[in-house]
From TrEMBL, chain A:
Residues annotated as domain 2Fe-2S ferredoxin-type: 61-137
Cited PROSITE patterns: 2FE2S_FER_1, 2FE2S_FER_2
Source taxonomy: Bacteria, Pseudomonadati, Bacteroidota, Cytophagia, Cytophagales
UniProt keyword annotations, A-Z: 2Fe-2S, Iron, Iron-sulfur, Metal-binding, Oxidoreductase
Any Pfam family the entry gives: Fer2
The protein, known as: (2Fe-2S)-binding protein
Keyword Oxidoreductase listed: yes
Tagged with keyword Oxidoreductase: yes
Location of region: Disordered: 1-21
Record-level Gene Ontology MF annotations: 2 iron, 2 sulfur cluster binding; metal ion binding; oxidoreductase activity, acting on the aldehyde or oxo group of donors
InterPro entries, sorted: 2Fe-2S-bd, 2Fe-2S-bd_dom_sf, 2Fe-2S_ferredoxin-like_sf, 2Fe-2S_ferredoxin-type, 2Fe2S_fd_BS, Aldehyde_Oxdr_Iron-Sulfur, Beta-grasp_dom_sf
TrEMBL record, chain B:
UniProt feature coiled coil, ranges: none
Listed Pfam families: Ald_Xan_dh_C, MoCoBD_1, MoCoBD_2
Name of this protein: Xanthine dehydrogenase family protein molybdopterin-binding subunit
Molecular-function GO terms, alphabetical: iron ion binding; oxidoreductase activity
Xref: SMART domains: Ald_Xan_dh_C
Lineage: Bacteria, Pseudomonadati, Bacteroidota, Cytophagia, Cytophagales
Domain Aldehyde oxidase/xanthine dehydrogenase a/b hammerhead residues, every copy: 25-140
Organism of this sequence: Larkinella knui
InterPro entries reported in the protein's UniProt record: Ald_Oxase/Xan_DH_a/b, Ald_Oxase/Xan_DH_a/b_sf, Ald_Oxase/xanthine_DH-like, AldOxase/xan_DH_MoCoBD1, AldOxase/xan_DH_MoCoBD2, AldOxase/xan_DH_Mopterin-bd_sf
Taxonomy, superkingdom: Bacteria
Length: 215, 749
């Protein structure tokens, strides 16, 4: 558990070491979850050729998880990522696909309270977990303080990186890594913004942190 | 400290983004996010060779894979009517032919779409795409710009057009450069760079009927996309609907209708279902253009006291074999500084690559990197402060067109920027400033971008409850178009912005240009201004007809508005509420449409936005790592509509410029003619940790001649010059002049 916390606490980053760690965790989880849920066959033992055949004929797998407080019982193609599950199957398009490669942070969601890159996680790995997407961040009609702060400090332009930035920003404070502009920059560096809203995002996070509001 | 980032001149609190709530809650709907029953998913297959032809495509395994609806290629495409049929024997497309998708067997670049799989789910489509085998016959390709530079030539389109600005240009004596008292001469190179907006390009194509097409597409101009698709598929314009309400950044990548868009439309036709295509990040390197690889040679001659006597500027850019992409690379040099003898040359090099396109600050970001670096080299050679050198050669009128500027406050920008930055603390000699073991450098550069205003229409509808809907087929790729337009309408009509809704991004709305060339506020802002003025006059006419309203004989120019009420003059009476005017006339709404367009002022004045950037870098003497520590940027773009969004746009430009200066480079393996940088792990763009706080200032004086609102464009000048300011700061820190972007540590060690 300690291991997992450490990895998740650093958030989605793209520099070498943590990337490696993310991948290791990813593999570990995939293997564990395939063992649990994919009894008919294992992708990881298959020969390359049989892999293509198997993947093409993959059955659907039952999955239950909680999304934004709602328990869902689903049937998914085992190849479906958590990101494609929420965007394509559940219509929760607030979570964005920027790269599908774990390099941009646009797809950041919370899994059991930790920030996770949903494009690097298979849906079937989420059995029994609690997922929060951007749609679940606010409390009904009233915005989360971080959402308010992003609007006030203009922490975006096109808005495409914004859901991911917000989910990471909330984690950044929860993890205790929002104590200075420099620290925020470091712990938000897995969330790319091509519009360059970085300075305003940093201001928004610092403002929420110093206001002492609960996130 | 908080105040350090506030512009002291900010006159009023800015309106928060009108679509901010949608964006922070995830409710803003981008092109790939519209729900459709029966939606099919497409995956593109692209060529793995850079030149040659397709021998065969074996799609059997893919076609029989689960969920697959079709595998589309030139062998079975329903065809794009405007392409015509393939002539036999088939020939390679000559220069000047836009790329035709799934048309014939020829390969023009690596990454060219050759086939497309359509299936019920994305997973099925992705898997089936891996089963398609394409067999090629390769030919020898040329993709290496520097190795082929000697083949560069004047573009054929320029040869045909004697009035093209890209014709060879000589002002004064072209030989003056040889006799200059002091002369510097250098060659500057920028590599290919890609827009890489965070939202990948995406489209959902829906044939509503055999002759009715609707697309939800990522582009920067719904009207031009509508026109292009109507032309391609030979449909009446009104039968094509383009919807692009939210765009996740574009920076130029969405100005054209690209082949993948047409491919998705063909696929939707083929399978007779709505089809969604989202480009993977790797395809964003070969599908939607790029800033072209460009080599520039600049020489500046000057007197010993720094007066320019001659400038020569030669630029060569890369393009494809089938299209000529021209950009302003050498043009700024003719207008930026006063100089009697100026020569420019512009050449193109055709390579086996896809066609480049405009990327933020097109041409000028490239050209001004070279010119403003060269100025810094001259300043060093003359031991003159670089800012002082610019002031000594400031152009008080346009030296190219011999016209007065419509307005130019560049000297104010220099003053404000220098003061806020603390430029006076700069020590002239490079490699002299240090802090915490780091080499410290201060650099600056100027910025300019031409003023663009296009005919635009807007419609305003006042409803019975006093709310207003304003509409125009303009776009918002990020700068906050709706917010600025709402603010213009609110001011013009005296209506609370909360009661105004601005609609954009829909080809069914009144005509407006696409979002490019920093033209949106100048063009559409003027149209919104005009339509609100017309609405006010219409309301006055209606008020006059109300007995005892006190508006008889009131002249339109005396009318004032406030809180949704009309007043006969500034200082009088309770006036009359808009809602009461409608009620009296038993109207449910009042509607006006107006067009606004440029006029004779274009021939009387030279119109540009101007600005400057000041940058402090720290360079590690051990690793060569460059950190940008501080940026102060100041822009003269006429009147600022919304400080908050304008400031964000400036910051975004600076961030893009830092990327251009320090990290962005699309590297190709010329053995295969293919990019090796195909994701964010290899094509680096700035991340949070790379960007300091950036201080933005505006002169904020209306330009009296450009348009009724006095506003010029900001998007491009925000990035133009930034790369030079960074390079100049690096030189000041290290004494090393890097003329080939990006400035990576290996070049400094
Ligand atoms: S989409 Fe998951 S990190 Fe980019
Ligand atoms: S706001 Fe456009 S990518 Fe961040």
């Amino acid at each position: 558990m300690k291991d997992k916390n450490e990895i998740d606490a650093t958030g989605p980053r793209r520099d070498g070491d943590h990337h490696q760690e993310d991948r290791r965790l990813f593999l570990k989880q995939s293997l564990a979850m395939t063992g649990l849920t994919l009894t008919p066959f294992s992708f990881f033992n298959a020969e390359p050729d049989s892999y293509s055949v198997l993947a093409g004929n993959a059955d659907r797998v039952d999955l239950s998880l909680t999304i934004n407080g709602v328990k869902r019982r689903l049937s998914v193609d085992p190849r479906t990522t958590l990101l494609d599950l929420v965007r394509e199957q559940l219509g929760l398009t607030g979570t964005k696909k920027g790269c599908d490669l774990g390099q941009c942070g646009a797809c950041t969601v919370h899994v059991d309270g930790q920030r996770v890159l949903s494009c690097l996680s298979f849906a079937v790995m989420q059995q029994g977990r609690k997922i929060t997407t951007i749609e679940g961040l606010s409390n009904g009609a009233s915005l989360h303080p971080m959402q308010e702060a992003f609007i006030k400090h203009d922490g975006f332009q096109c808005g495409y990186c914004t859901p991911g930035q917000l989910m990471s920003a909330v984690s950044c404070i929860r993890e205790g890594h929002a104590n200075s502009e420099a620290e925020i920059r470091e712990y938000m560096s897995g969330n790319l913004c091509r519009c360059g809203a970085y300075p305003n995002i940093v201001k928004a996070i610092l403002a929420v942190k110093t206001s002492g509001q609960s996130v | 400290m908080a105040n350090a980032h506030q512009n002291p001149a900010e006159p009023h609190p800015s309106l928060d983004r009108v679509d901010g709530r949608l964006k922070v809650t995830g409710a803003a709907t981008y092109s790939a996010e519209y729900p459709f029953e029966n939606l099919a998913h497409a995956v593109l297959i692209t060529s793995t060779i850079a030149k040659g032809r397709i021998r065969t495509i074996d799609a059997k395994a893919a076609e029989t894979a689960p969920g697959v609806l079709a595998v589309l290629s030139h062998m079975n495409s329903p065809g794009v009517p405007a392409y015509g049929s393939v002539k036999l024997p088939a020939e390679r497309a000559p220069v000047g032919t836009a790329f035709r998708v799934f048309y014939d067997e020829f390969i023009y670049f690596s990454g060219q779409p050759v086939a497309m799989v359509v299936a019920n789910t994305p997973e099925q489509a992705r898997h089936a795409a891996s089963l398609v085998h394409v067999d090629y016959e390769s030919e020898k390709h040329q993709t290496d710009f520097e190795a082929n530079l000697s083949k560069a030539a004047v573009a054929t389109s320029v040869q045909r057009n004697k009035t093209s600005p890209f014709q060879d240009y000589d002002r004064g004596n072209p030989d003056a450069i040889y006799t200059a008292e002091v002369k510097i001469e250098a060659t500057y190179t920028i590599p290919t760079q890609h827009h890489q907006p965070l939202e990948p390009h995406a489209i959902i194509a829906v044939w509503e009927a055999d002759d009715k097409l609707t697309v939800y597409d990522k582009n920067q101009g719904v009207k031009s996309a509508q026109g292009n698709l109507a032309q391609a598929f030979k449909l009446p314009r009104e039968n094509v609907k383009v919807n692009s309400k939210f765009i996740g950044g574009a920076f130029g990548s969405g100005i054209r209708v690209w082949p993948h868009t047409v491919a998705a439309v063909l696929a939707a036709q083929k399978v007779n279902r709505p089809v969604k295509l989202v480009l993977g990040r790797e395809l964003m390197f070969t599908s939607v253009g790029y800033r072209p690889f460009t080599v520039q040679k600049i020489a500046i001659g000057a007197t010993k006291d720094g007066q320019f006597t001659a400038i020569t500027h030669e630029g060569t850019g890369q393009t494809s074999t089938y299209e000529e992409h021209l950009e302003r690379t050498i043009l700024a040099t003719r207008a930026m500084y006063v100089c009697p003898n100026v020569s420019t040359r512009y050449r193109l090099l055709n390579l086996d690559v896809n066609t480049p396109t405009w990327m933020r600050g097109p041409g000028d970001a490239t050209g001004m990197f070279a010119l403003e670096s060269a100025l810094d080299e001259l300043a060093f050679a003359l031991s003159i402060d670089p800012l002082e050198l610019r002031l000594r050669n400031h152009a008080d009128s346009d030296p190219e067109r011999h016209l007065p500027w419509s307005a130019k406050s560049l000297k104010d920008c220099y003053r404000i920027g220098a003061e806020q930055f603390g430029w006076k603390n700069r020590i002239l000699e490079p490699q002299t400033m240090k802090a915490d073991g780091m080499l410290v450098g201060y650099g600056m550069a100027s910025s300019l971008y031409g003023f663009h205003r296009h005919p635009s229409k807007a419609k305003a509808v006042l409803l019975a409850d006093g709310s207003v809907v304003v509409q125009s087929a303009t776009m918002d790729i990020g700068p906050g178009t709706g917010t600025a337009m709402t603010q213009i309408a609110a001011t013009m009509l005296g209506v609370n912005p909360k009661k105004i809704r601005f609609d954009l991004g829909d080809s069914g709305l009144p005509d407006a240009p696409g979002q490019n060339g920093s033209s949106t506020i100048p063009s559409v802002g003027s149209a919104v201004h005009a339509v609100c003025k017309a609405l006010k006059i219409k309301l006055l006419t209606l008020a006059v007809a109300i007995p005892g309203s006190g508006f008889a004989d009131v002249r339109p120019e005396d009318v004032t508005v406030k809180n949704g009420r009309l007043f006969p003059s500034a200082d009088s009476s309770p006036g009359i509420a808009y809602t009461d005017i409608l009620k009296h006339h038993k109207l449910t709404q009042v509607e006006v449409t107006e067009e606004s367009k440029p006029g004779a002022e274009r021939d009387q004045y030279s119109m540009y936005s101007f600005g400057c950037h000041f940058v402090e870098v720290h360079v590690s003497p051990v690793t060569g790592e460059v950190r940008v520590k501080r940026v102060v940027t100041c822009a003269d773009v006429g009147k600022i509509i919304n400080y908050k969004t304008a400031r964000s746009q400036s910051i975004g430009g600076v961030v893009g410029g830092i990327g251009m200066a320090l990290m962005e480079e699309s590297a190709m393996d010329h053995r295969y003619g293919r990019y090796v940088t195909t994701d964010f792990a290899s094509y680096h763009i700035p991340v949070h940790a790379d960007i300091p706080q950036i201080d933005v200032f505006f002169v904020d004086q209306p330009d009296p001649y450009v348009n009724p609102i006095g506003s010029k464009g900001l998007g491009e000048i925000a990035i133009v010059g930034v790369a030079a300011a960074v390079a100049n700061a690096v030189f000041h820190a290290t004494g090393k002049r890097i003329r080939q972007l990006p400035i990576t540590p290996d070049k400094l060690l």
